[in-house]
């Protein structure tokens, strides 16, 4: 199988996400779940260690226009707390084509997203202009924090353009920062 075939397989072979965009129950309340900045899910003070359970919860998680995060089903909607972003980008694969590059990102809950117009990368440097905080828009209003190791790999394949460092993928150009 070629690497392009592998990338296609990653995108096609992931389980279909529940249709939560069509679910709009009334707020059921707050649930004692905190998604930590390092990707751990904490329920009533204890870590949820079953990866399959975290994946299930992540599949019904969305961020709404009020900026809050909710676990939703057709009949319930529970608000959860998120320290930073609810997902992490932990790896990515590259397909170099003759005229473009494709980058497929893997999250900590085993979902894959192709970098591009629907799933762009953005860089927040904070109010003090400190260390870059890259993230990728995924689905349902959720973003995933790009791990430091992945970001360094992205910078490594980026190119200087003027006074910026840019990453080109899927026919799009993303500014990662200023060149030094």
From TrEMBL:
Residues 18-84, 86-176 form the DUF1285 domain. Coiled coil: none annotated. This is DUF1285 domain-containing protein. The lineage of its organism: Bacteria, Pseudomonadati, Pseudomonadota, Gammaproteobacteria, Cellvibrionales.
